[in-house]
Design goal:
Layout lengths: L2 H16 L15 E9 L19 E9 L22 E8 L2 H9 L6 E6 L6 H14 L6 E5 L9 H22 L6 E7 L1 H15 L3 H5 L1 E7 L5 H11 L6 E5 L4 H9 L21 E4 L13 H4 L1 H13 L35
Parallel strand pairs: 1-5, 4-5, 4-6, 6-7, 7-8, 8-9
Antiparallel strand pairs: 1-2, 2-3
């Protein structure tokens, strides 16, 4: 990325950071809307859903449930934020919340009425507010028709583009809490957790898995039904050392990359001009045989700096949903099976899918 382009993108990001950030808002339910129940484990104070920059980090986790209403006019890949008074007929809104006392109550409520004992655990990335992360998970759950319980781990991001270093420190601050949560979610017979991490959240997940491995708790690792690192904001050398410490990674293990990811290009500039893991040029740069790399570059639309392509590009969502349906497994627990059967060569552009095996379509 040229210096001028970096400066341009940096200016855009800083200007965006100065604009008011949207926040989750309550509204009356609409009978035609879809309700997505999102459970949350967070180190944030529950009455602070916006930016956290400079606010004292709190130890320990807090738990709650939020009913997110997705409008009948929802378009795949989008979060329909209110432009004025929130209306469940046209906007994402909150229609109900419940504060939960502890992790035991969280898990009991989360799994009540849900088939099986598998949980989708989403770990958001840098520069995210609690409101944004909740709505993103509700959008993902809607667009991928996922019925297994969805749990957001919301770590204390600054929610400010100027807080990059603050967020990297917050990853280390939150590591023990994520470890404790994963261990708590995998203690019962048949417990399974599928981990979806985005951006800097991928760094947090890798640090947590490394810590679990070094503690000798292979049981918790064996009960992870899969891991996806989406646009991971990790130095590739650091990832290699983390993976080495973990040993055999949970399976399946995916890395979703987008070479046109402008946010990660800026991150690479900030950290010394070295490309981040989410923008590597070829899958062969990840030498682990237990990792599959999928390249979404050809499906990028420019939305959100191409930093969320797998879940914001309608074409990417369609392809991933096709993977789910073609595996013959229900979407409720099949996120990890999304590449077991690839689309025909003429189904997507040649450059759009790049696997660890080196094959191109």
């Amino acid at each position: 990325m040229g210096g001028l382009r970096v400066v341009t993108v940096l200016a855009m990001v800083l200007l965006a950071g100065c604009a008011p950030r949207p926040s989750a808002m309550r509204a009356a339910p609409d009978p035609t809307a879809t309700i997505q129940t999102i459970h949350v484990a967070t180190g944030l104070v529950l009455d602070q859903t916006g930016s956290q920059f400079g606010i004292e980090r709190k130890s320990g986790l807090r738990y709650f449930r939020a009913d997110i209403s997705v409008p009948p006019t929802h378009m795949p890949g989008q979060i329909e934020w209110p432009e004025g008074k929130p209306d469940a007929a046209t906007d994402f809104v909150v229609t109900g919340t419940e504060v939960l006392e502890n992790a035991t109550q969280l898990i009991t409520r989360m799994r009540a009425g849900s088939p099986g004992r598998e949980t989708l655990l989403y770990v958001h990335g840098y520069n995210n507010t609690l409101s944004e992360a909740m709505y993103r998970l509700a959008q993902i759950r809607t667009d991928f028709e996922t019925t297994m319980p969805a749990l957001l781990f919301s770590w204390p991001s600054a929610g400010d583009p100027r807080g990059y270093v603050y967020d990297r420190d917050s990853v280390l601050f939150a590591r023990d809490d994520l470890v404790a949560l994963i261990e708590r979610l995998t203690t019962g017979p048949g417990d399974r957790v599928f981990v979806l991490a985005h951006s800097m959240g991928s760094q947090l997940v890798m640090e947590a898995l490394r810590q679990i491995a070094l503690s000798g708790d292979r049981t918790a690792l064996s009960r992870l039904s899969g891991v996806v690192l989406m646009s991971p904001d990790i130095d590739p050398d650091v990832f290699a050392r983390q993976a080495e410490a973990i040993g055999r990674l949970p399976q399946p293990f995916f890395i979703f990359i987008t070479r046109a990811d402008r946010a990660l290009s800026l991150s690479g500039f900030i950290t010394g001009r070295k490309p981040r893991l989410g923008v590597i040029d070829a899958a062969e740069e990840v030498t682990r045989p237990d990792v599959q790399v999928i390249d979404f570059s050809a499906l990028a639309t420019g939305e959100a700096y191409n930093h969320f392509v797998p879940v914001t590009s309608p074409a990417a969502i369609e392809i991933l949903n096709r993977f789910l349906s073609e595996t013959g497994r229900p979407a409720a627990g099949a996120l990890g099976a999304m590449t077991l059967k690839l689309p025909a060569p003429n189904a997507v552009p040649r450059e759009s899918i790049l696997l660890k095996s080196g094959s191109r379509f």
